[in-house]
Write a structure and sequence with these properties.
heterodimer, A: alpha+beta, 6-stranded mixed β-barrel, 6-stranded mixed barrel, 22 strands, 55% helix, globular, B: alpha+beta, 3-stranded antiparallel sheet, 4 helices
């Protein structure tokens, strides 16, 4: 409280002083009047009062001192002085503060994203007690973790039986078409939940309510829906009478019972548009027989489960209880028992996410921290140059008795003031930059809020202080470690140049590292984009059919496919064509358990369903055996990598394996292609089209005529089918999107580093020229040629430039090993990248030298000699 | 007349209490406070400006008094100090403490 009042005062210190002065002047006047009234002549009275009141200034300072402890006052004075001297050199201030602000802004931005993506739990009441619950299976898939969800039946059992949890709920993420009418519906992100979801999470409602227990009974499904605030606003125009109105989900009318509060955007990585009870999935997929199993079977895997632990119950105890309960449930249903894992709801804590997230963020933090170091070196260099200009001022202050520590404190305060201003600007950058970049890096609205929070504030504050000390301490110590007499005589101390050269070398080394990394990443993306994936991409069109989900099941999809291929036979513009469950490079992946007949444990292998013509259409050759025929069921094909890793050799044709507990014959092995990911070939199993969902139609050179023909055929078969078309190359571009964004960011950092290094080099060269103007003048007077002068200037710093380059290249070698995974096959020692970085830095060095060098050779000998 | 400030026998820490007591009678400006202390104590206690104003600032800092600008009796701009509820409480407790002290000292003096 009293500190608050002190600070309030501090900001109007001038006001306090004038108030005090006025007050004491009034006192003096009153006293004088009193004496005059007693009969003293006015002139004499004034003298008496003056004597009696003593030194008014001292009294005033005493009074002011009450408010301001001396250290605070010193700080205040130093800061004021610093601001004044910064204002006097606006160019220096802009460059130095701008550089620091950019660096702090970048660091704070990365921290903001890290906090929002990795560390922030769900936006629910008391998120500390809410945990994700995972079953730990005994089968660990290839390269993965064994954490998985529970059956809905088990989740309900756990919720009913647990004493340590306030409640546990199950949820499944679906995509459904949502709109006020069937025709206005748009694909939306839905979470199907058990009825207790909102209650357990403690969600408030903008309108209406959450789900009632009766609304989530598998036997009597209810068509009720809760909208997110955003979809209420955007899809339903913020209708204030929304409760009780109808919303269409995949063409089925649902009643809106609630609108969630604005802050709650769901419990998935994508923003959620709506919630519906799990049992309502029966209404959404009336023809799908597996829905009944999903809702009721004890071993239907897997729904995500989360819950809220009771207050005061340790997490370990809650986990132990769930494990006991889960074992009991497994025993009752004669299943293999699983372990139980509880984690916080922050992304960083989810199993399998930690490694990736850590690596990605470590890399980003490293890069932006290098930028910060670079900026500090740069500003440090500028400060040294500036303190050269202030030598006389500092020497004078030293000689009239200021202690060295007093001046170091003064100089450090100046750094802190700069750091503080830069920190504020950096914070502003962190407000704007992350949403801007994320909006470009993600094509769907992600479920995290990127506003900097208190941790971010603390981070940027800490960073500003750290930076201020980093760039301010060395120059401050340096500026004061001089003999007063030497300074007053304007003699150049050589050690200052040494420190500058060291800083310059560091800068160049750091920018080499950043530039090489950026160059390698850009070459990697280009490499990937130009890579031959092993099949034709260029002229393939992908046509997708969206079926009204509530009226199709596997049998109907098969019937539709039969009708489709019959019609296609008579449409030459759609030839040749092939079918695939997902197009190459698509974002959806399926994995299937597969094992050799002798093995007991499944191995999870990526699976693709394709039609008979798929391989010939894409030009993927067979290594042995045959491809699919239209009538094939119960046979599979695998790629070479799968043949090698599963069967230890390529002569797999004709062998049998166990897939989903059924025996399957491998009728053929196809050549490896980069059809799943462009950077790696993984084991891949092909199965015939099952009709589980509608496959994509791949057509060579369909063009708009082919697309229209396909649309016409589909509409003839079922007018409700929506048809979309896209080039396979567009899908490929999307696949490379994140890598492109990453390399663009790296390039941006590299450019920033280059700019900083150039400014740094310019500063050093300019300093050398200024320092040696007199010497140059004498040399010129004695007949030195401009070339010799140039050599003199360049020679002074060439060692640090070359040294920095060498150290930078060695460091880059180390760093590039770390990022090799991101390089799409470009070697970490790619000579072109290194060579071009050297050339770019060389050019920058030349450019940075140009102006100072010209100034040097134009030195007028006479003027230079008069400089003294 | 020398440059006498606070009489040396004014117990340390009592100035703040005296000011608070004077202000308990009503708002006053610095000069007025000094005058009142002098008058009531029949010229025994004379408060110098060099201790009065720092003491007033300390009271402000602690939130025991508030200051407002107003017109003095001769219509000059003067800064008037006013007791806050916290100040009133402080006065009561300081007063009690002081009286306990004085009584104790008295007892010692009388018995010894």
């Amino acid at each position: 409280m009293s500190l608050l009042r002190r600070l309030q005062r501090l900001f109007r210190l001038g006001g306090v002083e004038s108030e005090l002065a006025e007050e004491m002047e009034f006192h003096r006047a009153m006293k004088t009047r009193e004496l005059v009234e007693r009969g003293l002549p006015e002139s004499e009275a004034a003298g008496v009062v003056a004597r009696e009141m003593g030194n008014m200034t001292t009294a005033r300072e005493d009074a002011r001192g009450v408010w301001l402890p001396p250290w605070m006052e010193g700080l205040w004075r130093d800061s004021e002085y610093a601001l004044r001297s910064l204002r006097k050199q606006p160019g220096f201030a802009v460059v130095a503060i701008g550089t620091l602000a950019a660096a702090i802004g970048l660091n704070t931005s990365v921290f903001t994203v890290f906090g929002a993506v990795a560390l922030r739990p769900w936006a629910v009441r008391e998120p500390g007690r809410v945990v994700n619950v995972y079953a730990l299976g005994s089968h660990v898939p290839v390269g993965g973790n064994s954490a998985m969800g529970f059956s809905i039946a088990e989740a309900r059992f756990l919720d009913a039986a647990s004493q340590t949890f306030e409640g546990l709920f199950a949820m499944r993420h679906w995509t459904v078409a949502l709109g006020p009418t069937e025709t206005s519906a748009q694909p939306s992100s839905a979470i199907l939940v058990t009825a207790n979801y909102f209650r357990v999470l403690g969600i408030e409602f903008e309108r209406g309510r959450g789900f009632l227990a009766d609304e989530d009974k598998a036997g009597t499904p209810q068509a009720v829906v809760v909208l997110s605030y955003t979809s209420w606003q955007n899809r339903f125009g913020g209708d204030s009478e929304i409760i009780g109105r109808t919303a269409h989900l995949d063409g089925v009318p649902f009643t809106v019972v609630g609108v969630a509060s604005r802050d709650f955007t769901g419990t998935e990585t994508l923003r959620t548009d709506l919630w519906a009870p799990l049992s309502a999935s029966k209404l959404l997929r009336p023809l799908d027989s597996s829905i009944g199993d999903m809702l009721e079977k004890a071993d239907y895997c897997c729904s995500s489960v989360a819950g809220r632990i009771r207050k005061g119950v340790p997490q370990a105890q809650a986990g132990a209880e769930l494990e006991v309960l889960s074992h009991r449930f497994s025993a009752e249903h004669s299943r293999e028992a699983n372990g139980v894992l509880l984690t916080s709801t922050a992304m960083f804590s989810r199993p399998g996410r930690k490694g990736d997230t850590t690596a990605a963020f470590a890399l980003m933090f490293a890069a932006v921290f290098l930028i910060l170091l670079l900026a500090c070196a740069n500003v440090g260099n500028l400060l040294i140059a500036r303190s050269a200009a202030r030598r006389r001022e500092i020497a004078t202050r030293l000689s009239i008795g200021a202690s060295r520590s007093r001046i170091v404190r003064q100089l450090l305060t100046e750094s802190m003031v700069m750091g503080a201003v830069a920190g504020l600007a950096g914070l502003a950058i962190a407000y704007v930059l992350p949403p801007f970049v994320m909006a470009r890096a993600m094509d769907e609205p992600a479920n995290f809020r990127l506003e900097p929070d208190r941790a971010v504030l603390a981070f940027s504050l800490g960073l500003s202080v750290l930076a201020s000390v980093l760039f301010g301490l060395a120059p401050a110590l340096h500026a004061t470690r001089v003999s007063v007499t030497a300074l007053l005589k304007e003699q150049a101390p050589g050690s200052r140049l040494r420190l500058r050269s060291l800083l310059l070398g560091t800068q160049i080394a750091l920018s080499v590292v950043l530039l090489v990394a950026a160059g390698l990443m850009m070459r990697g993306v280009r490499n990937a984009a130009n890579r031959d994936p092993g099949f034709s991409v260029g002229n393939i069109d992908v046509i997708s059919f969206e079926l009204p989900a509530n009226s199709y099941n596997t049998a109907r999809i098969r019937a539709l496919l039969a009708g489709l291929s019959e019609a296609m036979q008579q449409t030459p513009s759609l030839h040749p064509y092939g079918l695939a469950r997902s197009a190459p490079f698509a974002n959806s992946h399926w994995f299937t358990g597969i094992r050799m007949r002798a093995e007991t444990n499944d191995r999870m292998v990526e699976t693709q369903e394709v039609g008979a013509e798929y391989f010939s259409l894409l030009g993927i050759p067979l290594v042995c055996g045959r491809g699919f025929s239209p009538s094939d069921r119960g046979v599979i094909l695998i790629n070479e990598t799968a043949a090698r890793s599963l069967l230890g050799g390529l002569n797999a044709c004709g062998k049998t394996v166990t897939v989903r507990n059924e025996v399957r014959q491998i009728v053929g092995v196809v050549k490896d292609t980069y059809s799943v990911k462009i950077d790696a070939i993984t084991p891949l199993m092909y199965e015939p089209i099952s009709g589980m969902d509608m496959p994509r139609l791949l057509v060579r050179q369909a063009g708009s005529a082919g697309f229209q023909a396909a649309t016409a055929i589909a509409k003839r078969l079922d007018p409700r089918i929506q048809v979309r078309g896209e080039h396979l190359s567009a899908q490929f571009a999307r696949h490379l999107g994140p890598a492109r964004t990453a390399s663009a960011l790296a390039a941006m950092l590299g450019l920033l580093a280059l700019m900083l290094a150039s400014v740094g080099m310019f500063g050093v060269f300019a300093y050398v020229v200024r320092q040696r103007t007199q010497e140059i003048g004498i040399r010129m007077a004695l007949g030195a040629k401009p070339g010799q002068i140039l050599k003199l200037i360049l020679g002074a710093s060439s060692r640090s430039v070359l040294g920095g380059l060498a150290v930078g290249i060695v460091l880059s070698g180390v760093v590039s090993r770390l990022i090799e995974r991101l390089l799409y096959g470009v070697s970490g020692f790619d000579p072109i990248s290194y060579l071009s970085v050297c050339l770019i830095l060389g050019a920058a060095a030349l450019a940075a030298t140009w102006v100072p060098a010209r100034r040097a050779v134009r030195v007028e000998p006479l003027q230079a000699l008069r400089y003294e | 007349m020398g440059t006498r400030t606070t009489p040396p026998d004014l117990l340390p820490g009592t100035l703040g209490m005296l000011i608070l007591r004077v202000l308990a009678r009503g708002p006053a400006h610095g000069y007025g406070i000094a005058q009142q202390i002098k008058g009531i104590s029949e010229d025994v206690l004379q408060v110098g400006e060099s201790s009065l104003y720092p003491a007033l600032q300390r009271l402000l800092l602690n939130g025991w008094v508030k200051a407002e600008w107003g017109a003095s009796e001769n219509n000059r701009r003067a800064r008037f100090y006013n007791l806050t509820p916290a100040g009133r409480k402080q006065l009561a407790s300081e007063r009690e403490e002081f009286q306990r002290m004085v009584a104790a000292i008295q007892r010692v003096l009388e018995t010894a």
